Amino acid sequence: MAPPPQVELLVAFTNSVDQDEGTDDLTTPDELSHWLHEHGLASQLIHSTPADLALALRLRDALHAAMVGNHDATPQLTALAAVGQELPLVLAEVAGRPGLRPHWDGVRGALSGVLVAVNEAVADDTWRRLKICSSDECAWAFFDATKNRSRTYCEWGCGNKIKSRNYRARQRATA
Questions:
Q1: Quick check: 67 and 14 in contact, CB under 8 A?
Q2: Half-sphere exposure of residue 166, counting CA atoms within 13 Å on the CB side?
Q3: Is the dihedral of CA 142, 145, 146, 149 positive or negative?
Q4: Where do the domains of the chain lie?
Q5: Would you give per-residue pLDDT tens digits along the chain (175 residues)?
Q6: How far apart are CA 159 and CA 99, in angstroms?
Q7: How far apart are the first and last CA of the chain?
Q8: Are 108 and 86 in contact (CB under 8 A)?
Q9: CA nearest neighbour of 131 among 59, 87, 74
């Protein structure tokens, strides 16, 4: 099952920081502006401020925490709800039916688009499939496409690395 566009957006936003490599795509207001434009949240480059960047980073961290809660069905939505209060949405006609859209324009409107994506993922039941890799070294967001939603590691081989490391440790212990 291929992830829908809103899920791809949420994974990309959460993975804009790479724990393993120690890199971050959102370290300046200009980088935030470019990221929002490149991912379709802003139709043109918009001016971002340091306050906008701080809000974006809080939103990204809150999404990460919420996805961690999807592993064991323990919702961790407090931080996401708190950031959501700063990014209001309105009910409007969207493609001929009621839907949410950002209340404001600019960077806050673009960041509100991330919340719209969360709502769409909840509505189509893909939200519970958004997870964070169980490897402490990785912490990469991924979409669990397994039938029973049991995947715990991303597709970059983290599960295999951990299983191999544990196997070698057991072999050394018995030697």
A1: yes
A2: 7
A3: positive
A4: 5-174
A5: 789 999 999 999 999 998 878 899 999 999 999 999 999 999 999 999 999 999 999 999 999 999 999 877 888 999 999 999 999 999 999 889 999 999 999 999 999 999 999 999 999 999 999 999 988 788 899 999 988 887 888 876 676 665 666 666 677 777 6
A6: 38
A7: 44
A8: yes
A9: 74
Strand runs labelled E in the chain? 17-18, 23-24, 89-94, 97-102, 130-132, 141-143
Q: 5-174 domain in CATH 1.10.3300.10?
A: yes
Structure tokens, 85: 């209060």
Structure tokens at 39: 């991912």
SS3 call for 95 = coil
Dihedral angle sign, alpha carbons of residues 32, 33, 36, 41: positive
Which tokens sit at 111? 């960041």
Long-range CB contact pairs, 21-29, < 8 A, 24+? 26/53, 26/56, 26/57, 26/60, 28/53, 29/53
Q: Which pair of structure tokens corresponds to residue 10? A: 């949420």
